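I'm stuck. Please check this protein.
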Amino acid sequence: MKRLILTGLVVLLFVLLAAPTALSYWEERQLTFDGDWNHQLDNNLNWSADCRWIAYDTRAFSGGIGNTLTLEKVNIVSQEVVTIYNASNPDPTSGFGPGTAAVSYFPAEDMVIAIR
């Protein structure tokens, strides 16, 4: 019985000492700071195959995909932002279109696909 209690206390001590270190590794932090547009994640495959980049579209606060002209990716370590695609030929009468959004990475390659 004493051995069981001692083992339990050792395990508890280990968990209490290791938990702050493990939790600090998973802190949430902001990667992008440009507030002029959204950073919209699609619902799947936002991470690159090497897990270093997150791809997103810069969907406007209103107007949806029709006025989204840029796809970007951000490096989770350096916070470098790279424009992946910039749609050309917005409609000169309204400034909208052709629109591009819902960017997703290929599972095993450094390539993306998106709605256009």
